[in-house]
Amino acid sequence: MDRLIYTSLTAMRGSMARQTAIANNLANANTPGFRADLAEAQTLWLESQQLNTRAFSSEEVQAADMKAGTVVATGRDLDIALSGDSMLAVQAENGEIGYTRRGDLMLSSTGLLTTGDGRPVQGTQGPLTLPPSDAINIDDQGRVWIVPVGGDATQPQQLDQLLLVSPAGSDVVKGVDGLFRVRGGGTLPSDPDARVITRSLESSNVSATEALVEMIEASRSWDTQLKMLNDARDMDAATADLMSLTQ
After folding, report:
1. Which residues lie across from 136 on neighbouring strands?
2. How far apart are CA 198 and CA 23, in angstroms?
3. Of the candidates 194, 197, 202, which has an alpha carbon nearest to the alpha carbon of residue 168?
4. Sign of dihedral through CA atoms 26, 20, 15, 222?
């Protein structure tokens, strides 16, 4: 009986993890450049000193859906979308370098260039800090141009270049903070062929309709396992009653 109980319990944990991943995807359906979490099942063996006689299923977030989102023109100077598989280097909360596809850039009160969620954008010389200027422009190669206050609009100055990297050939994993990193540590190489689609944003690749259907399926799976758990409890109680009659 305990096998049925623990089998149902692990299945319920998997359904909960799946629902958590789907809920996170739905919450980021409108986040620029977001890559959907993929919850996958894996086998976990119950180890013993003799033989591994039981295996349970564990469903956890194992990867991200790297399918590109739709690119939409916004007309905003600091909005960018990355072509191909290129990624933008940013600084994570712990100071490490992470990578993202998010391109809704903005300036902080100190002139620091950040993504829409406040992560400092990295240039080839470090975090990008822009001085006061009359105009800011990012070209298709990721170069950042400014027109100094009172300067000639026809003579912009190049400040730096966005640090664009290529994940090709690297084992890249998505962290809980939504940033991508090289599994086991390390950095991605710069991508000299990276191109930027200016005044545009790449939308999230989450399909709200598909996510809602998956949420319903996960909820039904939870209900099924809960019913099985209740059935196991009832059978255990019935067996205990039968045993008491024989005494």
Report:
1. 146
2. 31
3. 194
4. negative
